[in-house]
Design brief:
Length: about 475
């Protein structure tokens, strides 16, 4: 039995390729983040507080991949029928999948835990090893919890996972900026009883082993019990089946129906409609696309909301204008994930279709605009209204949306290097050269936002700015069609 499990495990690892089997880039990034955070508090806080910081950092760095690229390891294999045809039992396939998950978790977790253990000041060898082992146990608990949730929901958890990953992504960024401010207070945290609500914060369960004073027995038992329960769940709970494409329309698709039909008649021209209709339907059903892109769009909105909520009415107008315009700088990252698909081997359908590359590109841009940017900007308008800027939202919503579409058009060829839905999600190339591009877009949009918040103060100015933005977009659209027209 063990021999067959090992054969299946080797086959799974080999199928991923060398970079997926040993993600050197991800490990280096996790090690760098962990070393920076732990280096800042090293020697400044007692052992419990240091372990809490190290384990919290590791938890954040592991939880995000668990909800993203590693989440497929929590599902049953796509090749299940082929594997079941082999001389293996179901329990052996389950154990091989679990072992694969543990290997991936262990490799990623060690990337953050080893630097934290090496930087720990005043820890002996046994304490450093204990910190690493507790961190591995914590990762195991998170994986088991996510597996239990997905098994309970039977693959219908995509919307919930999007919300959880977005909240987690924002929590990591906001927590990193706020958490370091607590370092002076953490100098007095010598045990779990020193912090409030320790039982509600899982990293505190595992850091409790480094307490130098008395703490509740329940807290001392929390980590061992959680690890035992996690092992039981991973061994006993079968992997849920991957959710396949299903007929039917979501509520958002129904709400966008009239706008979609209007766009198909007035904005989408000729053979652009093929890629427009295709991507409008397909992209929201691509699990990896949704899980990777929604959190990216939520980051600027969340930070600007936090910044605007405590400002004076005059300053708030500027922040609310930025709330509308700055997310447009993140649109190239949204576009960069369009080539990814779990069904990328069907790219031959696109390659043999009687459409030009520019027609596919224009249709894709318009599908992204209608299916993702329009609902997103509607949400931004709602946030602005809740913050007391309904008038500003009414004046600037349309220009801000059109500005995002223009950024999408101008950056598409540089950021989208493959046809839509044509490569595996893990093979998408995100170039470091884009940093300057995104910074330039953010700077330009910031200037437009400042100008609009100061000078677009009435309905006439708002109509003029909207008309100008729409005219520029129409000119770019017409230019793209002219380039395709026969000479």
């Amino acid at each position: 039995m063990l021999r067959r499990v090992l054969i299946l495990l080797r086959a799974r690892l080999a199928a991923q390729g060398s970079e997926a089997a040993f993600p050197a880039a991800a490990i280096l990034m996790q090690g760098f983040v962990s070393a920076v955070v732990c280096g800042l508090v090293r020697g400044e806080v007692p052992p419990f507080a240091y372990a809490l910081v190290a384990l919290s950092t590791s938890a954040a760095l592991v939880a995000i991949p668990l909800l993203g690229e590693l989440s497929r390891l929590l599902f049953a294999d796509e090749t299940g029928d082929w594997v079941q045809a082999q001389p293996v039992r179901a329990v052996e396939v389950h154990l091989a999948r679990t072992a694969h998950l543990l290997v991936a978790l262990g490799v990623l977790s060690l990337g953050a835990l080893v630097p934290a253990a090496l930087l720990a000041k005043g820890f002996d060898i046994s304490a450093r090893i204990e910190l690493v082992l507790l961190g591995l146990g914590q990762s195991l608990v998170f994986a088991a919890a996510l597996l239990a949730v997905q098994a309970l929901l039977r693959g219908r958890a995509q919307a919930l996972l999007v919300v959880v990953q977005t909240a987690l992504f924002l929590g990591v960024l906001v927590g990193a900026s706020i958490g370091l401010r607590l370092v002076p207070q953490m100098r007095a945290w010598d045990s779990a009883t020193s912090m409030e609500n320790a039982l509600a914060f899982p990293p505190a369960w595992f850091a409790a082993a480094f307490s130098t004073s008395e703490h509740p027995r329940l807290l001392a038992l929390a980590a061992p019990l959680a690890i035992a329960l996690a092992i039981l769940l991973l061994l006993a709970v079968p992997a849920p089946e991957m959710r396949r494409f299903e007929r039917g329309m979501s509520l958002l698709e129904r709400l966008l129906g009239p706008l979609r039909r209007l766009a198909a008649r007035r904005w989408v021209h000729g053979r652009e409609r093929a890629s427009f209709e295709w991507l409008f339907e397909a992209l929201p059903r691509e699990r990896e696309f949704v899980l990777r892109t929604y959190p990216l769009l939520a980051v600027p909105a969340a930070f600007l909301w936090i910044s605007a909520s405590g400002e004076s009415p005059a300053a708030k107008q500027g922040w609310l204008a930025l709330l509308l315009f700055i997310p447009g700088a993140y649109v190239p990252l949204l576009a960069a994930h369009v080539p990814g698909s779990d069904s990328h081997r069907a790219r031959w359908i696109l390659e043999t279709a009687p459409v030009e590359e520019a027609e596919v590109r224009n249709g894709a841009i318009k599908a992204l605009t209608l299916r993702f940017l329009v609902p997103f900007y509607a949400l931004l308008v709602l946030i602005g209204c809740l913050l007391g800027g309904a008038g500003l939202m009414a004046r600037l919503a349309v220009p801000a949306l059109v500005a995002a579409v223009l950024v999408l058009r101008l950056t598409w060829r540089r950021c989208v290097t493959q046809p839509p839905l044509s490569v595996a999600p893990d093979s998408i190339l995100v170039s470091q050269d884009w940093i300057g591009l995104l910074a330039t877009a953010a700077g330009a949009l910031s200037l437009v936002a400042v100008f609009a918040s100061r000078f677009v103060t009435g309905p006439l100015q708002a109509l003029a700015l909207a008309a100008l933005a729409l005219a520029i977009e129409r000119a770019f659209d017409r230019r793209a069609r002219v380039a395709l027209s026969p000479r």
